[in-house]
Amino acid sequence: MRIMTDVPSRFRTVVAGCVLASGLALPAAAQETDAAARDYRTFAAAVSAGSMGFGLEPSVAVAEKLSLRVPIRYYKYDTEVTEGGIAYQGSLKLGGLGFLGDFHPFANGFRLSGGAFLNFQDISLTATPSASVSIGGVPYLPGQVGTIAVTADYAALAPYAGIGYGGAVKSAPGLEFFADLGILYTGQPDLTMTTSGGVVSLLDINSELNEIEGSFPSIAPVIQLGLSYRF
Asked: Concatenated DSSP letters for 105-121?
């Protein structure tokens, strides 16, 4: 009878021990899960400069090897272009607002990037010839031309693909090198040409536009370098 009495008692002791052990293990497992989450739920911000202008590049890790980045880049500068024997002066805008996914195959700074930019790029040019020029294959004297204005408007959305280094993936905070190397597909711009103070015919203007259409590159190389800080 003592044996029968001791068995339930020992069983209760074993059960109590298991419950206690599981009670200690659950918080430890939860802590490990939280630590694993913190390993990739990091935020980073970079400053950059390059072919798309000056940029601010915030990013956030959403998985162990994946982060999302929203770069904004911009620059405007004066330029001179000679096209069809006509010397133009004006401005060129660069940059865009990007929505990019960064995949880090080795769970370090190296990344493969893809996405698109809301394209800020456009060109505005004017020319006031001081000598005879040809417009649409027809010769004009300076007084007959007046002032020519040309604008190039690009599509609002430009796909992007590239490689780089830096971003939100990795757990340790700190400063690191940032780089983007890729291509931006801008397509051919929509061109417009107008004249003021002259007598250039619309037919000759359209002929001139047909001659210079297609002379703009559809793909723009992208090189951005900078520094990134991961929080």
From this structure: TTSSSEEEEEEEEEE--
And the tokens for 107? 């769970």
- For residues 90 and 23, state if they share a domain: no
Q: Please report, for the chain, how many H helices and E strands are present, in that order.
A: 3, 14
Closest CA to 192 of 171, 208, 168: 208
Pick the closest to residue 153 from 110, 186, 195 (CA basis): 186
Instruction: Identify whether residues 85 and 110 lie together within a single domain.
Output: yes
Structural domain boundaries enclosing 191: 41-230
69 and 22 housed in the same domain? no
Whether residue 120 is found in the same domain as residue 190: yes
Q: How many domains does the chain have?
A: 2
Q: Is 87 exposed, middle or buried (0-12, 13-18, 19+ CB in 10 A)?
A: middle
Based on the fold, state whether residues 18 and 57 are members of the same structural domain. Answer: no
pTM for the predicted model, two decimal places: 0.77
Rg, C-alpha atoms of the chain: 31
Whether 208 and 97 share a structural domain: yes
CA angle 191–196–198, rounded 5-degree value: 115
146-199 tens-digit pLDDT: 999 999 999 999 999 999 998 877 667 889 999 999 999 999 999 999 999 989
Residue 96 CA to residue 116 CA, distance in Å, equals 9
Q: What number is the average pLDDT over the span 17-31?
A: 42
